[in-house]
Amino acid sequence: MRFENKVVFITGAAKGIGKAISQGFAEEGALLALSDLDIDELERTAKELSNVAKVIKTYKLDVTKEIMVEKVIEKVIKDFQKIDILINNAGVSTMNYFWDLTEEEWDFNMNVNAKGVWLVSKYVVPYMIKRKKGKIVNTASMAGKIGAPLLAHYSASKFAVIGFTQAAAKELAPYGINVNAVCPGFVKTSMQDREVIWEAKLRGISDPEEVRKEYIKQTPLGRLCYPEDVARVVLFLASDDADFMTGQAINVTGGACMH
Ligand code: NAD
């Protein structure tokens, strides 16, 4: 019960990694403020977690829309009076050779993955600064450390998340606020299900499952990553055990990335 009565605000909480993170916090006593663009899926997730969570509130949020972010954070503070932990997890991916990318595709990935992390942090941090306390964990990616083919735009957005994490960690250190990132590898979520189909098509591979097998071959520990693998590390970074860690980007890749 590391998070008894701690208020955690999570973006992209409806499914995949965000859902596993939400479940992890619920099991350890946190009060959950969950947000997602897909409010129907989020409501389903909240219903599932209501058996384990003490308190859950849901908020429809598009992390790319500043006015919406401002209003949602105000509402969370009204509902819970504080935010102890912020998890910037919402993210998107599309796949293409960079010379075939449209401006729209570039902006979509950069806006959700990079701008979204900045915007939500911008509106949460003043409440943490007032209390001189807080933990922020951003979901970056292995693609934020190694350029990933067919994902140049996504890689750029995740390198940006790590750069932002380091700068924010330095700016917020005097206020007792830690900012870290996790860098997942090949995680079995709906994002990966979409990616194997795109990648197979772009590379002329008939069976998308062959692409998934390649992901496993690139992973020394010999299996895909699961959302719970990532959630456990996120919870550690949000806990008191990580009090002397800030500005770090921690791989959860089964050894697929080692720097
Ligand atoms: P997912 O697609 O299963 O879930 C992403 C969630 O984010 C969805 O619920 C979606 O509705 C929400 N979302 C999308 N756009 C949003 C927006 N504009 N505002 C608010 N919410 C929005 O994906 P996932 O695999 O669980 O990914 C979660 C995070 O992990 C992302 O940041 C992703 O880039 C990162 N990541 C995933 C993998 C992987 O292999 N799956 C690897 C490394 C990093």
Describe what you observe in this structure.
The chain contains eight helices and seven strands, in the order βαβαβαβαβαβαααβ. It has helices at residues 16-27, 39-49, 66-80, 103-131, 152-172, 190-203, 208-217, 227-238, and strands at 7-10, 31-36, 55-60, 85-88, 134-139, 177-184, 249-252. It has a seven-stranded parallel sheet, with helices on both faces. Strand 2, helix 2 and strand 3 form a beta-alpha-beta unit. Helix 1 (16-27) packs across helix 8 and helix 6 packs across helix 7. The structure holds nicotinamide-adenine-dinucleotide. Nicotinamide-adenine-dinucleotide binds at residues 11-12, 14-18, 36-38, 61-64, 89-93, 112, 139, 141, 184, 186-187, 189-192. Nicotinamide-adenine-dinucleotide (NAD) binds next to helix 1 and helix 6. Keywords: Oxidoreductase.
Short description, anyone?
With 259 residues, the chain is α/β, with parallel strands linked by helices. It is 48% helix and 15% strand.
Number of helical regions: 8
Give the C-level CATH assignment. Alpha Beta
Each distinct ligand: nicotinamide-adenine-dinucleotide
CATH fold title: Rossmann fold
Mean pLDDT value: 98
Strand order of the largest sheet: 3-2-1-4-5-6-7
Low-confidence segments, ≥5 residues, pLDDT <50?
Answer: none
Helix and strand run = EHEHEHEHEHEHHHE
Q: What is the SS-derived class?
A: alpha/beta
Q: How many angstroms does the end-to-end distance come to?
A: 32 Å
CATH superfamily: NAD(P)-binding Rossmann-like Domain
Radius of gyration, in Å, reads 18 Å
- Count of separate structural domains: 1
CATH architecture classification:
3-Layer(aba) Sandwich
Helical amount: 40-55%
What share of the residues does DSSP label as strand, in percent? Answer: 5-15%
